[in-house]
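The following record pairs a protein chain with its ligand, zinc ion.
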Amino acid sequence: MTRSGTDGLGIRGRGRETVEQKAHRLLVTGAVRAVDVAETGALVVVAGDTGRYEVELSPGRSTCSCPATVARCSHVIAAELIARLPDSEDAA
Ligand SMILES: [Zn+2]
């Protein structure tokens, strides 16, 4: 076996990792766990590098407890991926 790690995700080097790439990394490492998923939203817990963050997904509005100031941090994107909301494109 010559492959190791990313399994085709195409992540080369960590310096320019995008939030979407980080979201995928969180997913494949098992850091994302859906606590509650319903039609009206979802509660997801993400174990980040520096702490555990809670993401609340609801139609048109998602929030995360991490200190990031961006509207959609990697935790929110990872939560959307694991909750499989119709909003997110399934690239699998
Ligand atoms: Zn976050």
